[in-house]
DNA sequence: TAATATATCGAACAAATTGTTCGAAAAATT
DNA sequence: AATTTTTCGAACAATTTGTTCGATATATTA
């Protein structure tokens, strides 16, 4: 990582915190510049404009969430446990980025419809593929009996998203994991051979 | 409370939340108006300007903190327990208004030096008087041996403020109360007859 | 009901804010 | 020493936003 990339990283890190607290519109370039310890105009040496920084922050966040989820799935041995790992890891990661998540998907989603929508859509598709691949693996190894994996993963994702609100308001992670366990107990007995 | 006062109260309540989150400068009149469900210009029927709302919010907060502290002192039977009640109640109240407290006394204290300084000064004086009166009561009832109550209360207040940072960063209220207990154990044995 | 007072808001404006550009000056590299 | 890379102050343009004002709606009073 060369010098420019390091500086970019620094700016991105402070921008992440400030955006998380204030959102896109209420964050000023000078806020970021001051926090990063550089002049306001220097920011434009690294990024095209404010939205460019915001986009980079969001993309970094999304990528980190993806990586965490993938890692926890890979660490799980069986398809059943992979599914559980996916749900729990997703839940935890979302809680970690809850602040910026609120700004992106609630406060200001109207103004920046286009590219936020695209990021969201891409992310949703990636999750769908992930779940579908877990299900396929389960079918191949003979533990799941599913006719249409992509349909099943769609249903699973819809279910998870339906629980999002409940998870967002709860503070007891252990209880959430227990609830997830219960959910999957029912789900597994519906699809297991 | 008449209609105007009720509306003022509503505006003040939403303004409190928004100021707590964004601070004075980053809060827009329209944010408050939208949250209160009124037109932007209607706000000016109730308040002179933005700072007027901010000042009212701060004053309300300060007053509520004062009331809580006074109530808990009155509920305590002995001077020793009144002192303890003061410290613990103050600590808890400050934690409750921590968000707005940060904005008022950290982020923007330079811009609005004059009246924030005055509010702070008045509040400090009130606390000083409160502690002094508790000490006086203790002296009169013969449980405290103090030459100069106002000097002693000044020292106590300085001590409490010195602990503020530690309290602000800690999340374990029970531990904080235990620490306070220890502090007062020492203090009491120094001043008790 | 008519008349008066109270309450609300849209539109417009002035002032301030702030994202962005640009050229010059450091700092680093060749 | 020359050239390239990096940084930033100052200025500008565009936007934002606090505030005003007159008109309209709603409530009150006579």
Structural account:
Two copies of one chain form a homodimer. Chain A has 193 residues and is mostly helical. Chain A has two domains: 1-47, Arc Repressor Mutant, subunit A (Orthogonal Bundle); 52-191, Tetracycline Repressor, domain 2 (Orthogonal Bundle), CATH 1.10.357.10. Chain A is built from nine helices and no strands. The longest helix of chain A is centred in the middle third of the chain and has 28 residues, at 113-140. The chains hardly touch. The structure holds a DNA duplex (30 and 30 nucleotides).
Question: Which H/E pattern describes the elements of chain A?
Answer: HHHHHHHHH
The shape of chain A is: elongated
Question: What assembly state would you assign to the polypeptide chains in this entry?
Answer: homodimer
Q: Quick one: biggest sheet of chain A?
A: none
Any idea what the CATH architecture of the largest domain in chain A is? Orthogonal Bundle
Short description:
The structure is a homodimer of 193-residue chains. In chain A, 82% of the residues lie in helices and 0% in strands. By secondary structure, chain A is mainly alpha-helical.
């Amino acid at each position: 990582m060369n010098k420019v990339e390091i500086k970019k990283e620094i700016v991105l890190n402070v921008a992440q915190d400030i955006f998380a607290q204030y959102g896109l519109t209420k964050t000023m370039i000078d806020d970021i510049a001051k926090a990063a310890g550089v002049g306001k105009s220097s920011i434009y040496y690294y990024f095209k404009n404010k939205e460019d920084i915001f986009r980079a922050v969001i993309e970094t966040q999304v990528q980190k969430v993806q990586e965490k989820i993938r890692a926890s799935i890979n660490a799980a041995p069986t398809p059943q446990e992979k599914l559980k790992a996916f749900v729990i890891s997703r839940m935890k990661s979302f809680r970690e980025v809850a602040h910026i998540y609120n700004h992106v998907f609630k406060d200001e989603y109207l103004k920046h419809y286009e590219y936020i929508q695209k990021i969201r859509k891409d992310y949703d598709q990636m999750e769908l593929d992930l779940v579908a691949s877990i299900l396929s693996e389960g079918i191949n190894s003979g533990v799941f009996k599913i006719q249409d994996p992509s349909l099943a993963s769609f249903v699973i994702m819809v279910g998870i998203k339906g629980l999002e609100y409940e998870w967002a308001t709860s503070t007891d992670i252990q209880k959430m994991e227990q609830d997830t366990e219960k959910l999957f107990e029912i789900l597994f007995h519906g699809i297991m051979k």
